[in-house]
Write a structure and sequence with these properties.
The structure is a single chain. The chain is α+β, with helices and mostly antiparallel strands. The protein has four helices and three strands. Strands 1-3-2 form a three-stranded antiparallel sheet. Strand 2 and strand 3 form a beta hairpin. The N and C termini lie far apart (about 30 Å).
């Protein structure tokens, strides 16, 4: 079984935006999707996720709405805004540039 890895600083917002680009989800759904997409390599706890969601909501990157889940529980669903899509594009471009630069150093050092 793969070891659980901590996220690099500054990557949680980008990953949440990416997950929400696929469609709206509640907090638990976001954590489950991140774990699923990373093949269980990444786990995000509530203590990290919810401050990130509140911060992104404050910046206008996501919007939230209280609704009932399929299990008949009340949950806050998060959706990406147009501003959030633009931010995701910026974050993706920066990530691509930085990871390529880091890979160059690691291969050539």
């Amino acid at each position: 079984m793969a070891a659980k890895n901590e996220l690099l600083p500054g990557t949680l917002d980008m990953l949440v935006l990416r997950v929400l680009a696929r469609g709206e989800l509640h907090g638990w759904g976001i954590t489950q999707k991140l774990e699923q997409l990373s093949q269980s390599a990444l786990q995000v706890d509530e203590g990290s996720l919810y401050p990130s969601l509140y911060r992104m909501e404050g910046k206008g990157w996501i919007e939230a709405e209280w609704r009932m889940t399929e299990n008949n529980r009340r949950a806050k669903y998060y959706a990406l805004t147009r501003t959030g899509r633009k931010q995701l594009e910026k974050e993706q471009q920066l990530w691509d540039r930085m990871s390529a630069a880091i890979a160059l150093v690691m291969q050539n050092a």
